[in-house]
Design brief:
The chain contains 19 helices and 6 strands. The chain is of the alpha+beta class. The mean pLDDT is 94. The strands form 2 sheets. A 4-stranded mixed sheet has the order 4-3-5-6, with helices on one face.
């Protein structure tokens, strides 16, 4: 039997635009628009400005040039991906797979490499679809057991396979070199320690840009030529031992070429953690349906209880932006009493804002405990945990509602227009309507006919 590493390498090398169904190409366009919108929306945040300054300080870095999303400056290819990949994750508004956030690295890397190497729009779309397939299959094969997952392992470890695969496909790596390329990703996988999750460090967002940058470097090094490094995904290659306590080998090749993993992403409707998407949909629907005013609310209960998402709001505020983004009470308080949805949700002043904290203190997780590992397993099987919400008003009125699939889930997917609406919501404070329309038209209507992706540079600057 052909080794799994070679199966994936051959699949990615041989994949052609003409092989990909129309609905998958459409999905790739929506994912691109959604991710670019998330990156541009984060431009005015402090962390967004910081990473752009760092990318500019690192300089040109060679002759291949690529544009930083939103900022519009051209820098060296790796530095553009560093900035754009970080921006794409800062608001936690990009997609989520069963295994993390592949688009934060995949889309910025694909756009930057396609621009720098003057690839066509079809080249970009093909690489994006193929890269998701490689990423998701590797990630699913080495998913840790629930016991290890609950210890904090996972999610960020295998992100590197998306940008590495996409960069390699776009610069023309094939055959044995593609096998070697997957070996570079395996060997440069970040060490999966728990601290970045348990401390809710803001470095979590920067890690996506750094991983994307490293993916590009892997591709360039492999293109230049390296020795050996074949078969990294095999049992004797050692990759899965470093990131997991088990391996489901079937994931590497089952339904390969007919089951496109980009179709199974959830595009987030809100700039919050994926397990808070349904509660946000619920509070939005209930406020609009019943005309609820925030100051008239006595108590809000959300079920099930999800550890590290449902805890009561701390009286002294939140220690980091990531901790706040992962808190149901905080996110609902921002919806009810904060600024409109967008980049302002990244303003650190709200972490200890007394108005926000007072509102957040009214939100409580209740009901049976639902572990994240179980929820990921439910998502993988095509479903999603059902949430319930009860709002008790000061006048004694009680409103209750349940929902299972949040907007953007494959079972409750965006239409093209809904994706445009979310893009415009995300970028409305930083882009003119004319520029918004031009970028939407470029990605959704023109992309497959673009002969030189360097053209994108004029659309992604504010």
């Amino acid at each position: 039997m052909k080794p799994y590493t070679q199966i994936l390498a051959d699949y990615l090398s041989a994949l052609k635009y003409e092989d990909i169904p129309a609905e998958v190409i459409e999905r790739a366009k929506l994912v691109t628009l959604h991710t670019v919108g998330a990156a541009i929306s984060a431009m005015r945040s402090k962390s967004g400005q910081d990473i752009v300054k760092i990318a500019k300080a690192l300089g040109g870095g060679g002759s291949a040039q690529a544009t930083i999303l939103g900022d519009g400056t051209k820098v060296g290819l790796g530095n553009a991906v560093l900035a754009s990949g970080t921006l794409a994750d800062l608001l936690d508004w990009e997609d989520c797979a069963w295994t993390g956030h592949p688009s934060a690295g995949a889309v910025p890397t694909g756009l930057a490499v396609a621009e720098a190497y003057h690839k066509t729009g079809k080249d970009y779309l093909t690489a994006l679809v193929g890269g998701y397939d490689v990423y998701q299959r590797v990630a699913m094969a080495v998913q840790p057991s629930p016991e290890r997952f609950e210890q904090g392992w996972g999610l960020h470890c295998w992100q590197i396979f998306a940008p590495t695969s996409i960069a390699g496909k776009l610069i023309g790596i094939q055959g044995d070199k593609m096998n070697q390329l997957l070996g570079t990703a395996a060997h440069m996988t970040p060490v999966a320690i728990n601290l970045i999750h348990s401390s809710f460090s803001d470095f979590y967002h920067f890690a996506h840009g750094l991983t994307a940058q490293l993916g590009v470097e892997n591709a360039l090094i492999t293109e230049a030529g390296i020795s050996t490094l074949m078969g990294a995904l095999e049992e004797d290659g050692g990759y899965y031992f470093g990131v997991s306590d088990q391996c489901d080998w079937d994931w590497y090749d089952k339904d390969l070429g007919s089951r496109y993993m980009i179709m199974e992403l959830m595009l987030k409707n809100w700039p919050v953690n994926m397990w808070i998407q349904t509660p946000m949909d619920l509070i939005d629907a209930m406020v609009k349906k019943h005309g609820i005013q925030a100051d008239d609310i006595e108590r809000i209960e959300v079920s099930p209880y999800i550890p590290e998402r449902s805890e009561d709001s701390p009286r002294d505020g939140y220690a980091s932006l990531v901790r706040a983004q992962f808190s149901i009470p905080f996110c609902m308080a921002m919806y009810l009493k904060g600024p409109k949805v967008g980049y302002d949700w990244l303003d650190a002043k709200y972490l200890k804002d007394p108005v926000i904290l007072e509102m957040a203190a009214k939100v409580h997780g209740v009901g049976e405990e639902s572990l994240i590992s179980h929820n990921f397993d439910t998502f993988q099987k095509g479903s999603y945990p059902e949430y319930g919400m009860t709002i008790t008003m000061k006048d004694g009125a009680v409103y209750s509602q349940t929902r299972q699939f949040p907007k953007g889930h494959p079972q409750n997917d965006y239409t093209r227009q809904e994706c445009i609406d979310v893009f415009k919501l995300a970028t409305g404070d930083v882009m003119s309507e004319e520029k918004q329309d031009a970028l939407c038209d470029f990605i959704l209507n023109k992309l497959e006919n673009v002969e030189d992706m360097a053209e994108i540079s004029k659309y992604v600057k504010l």
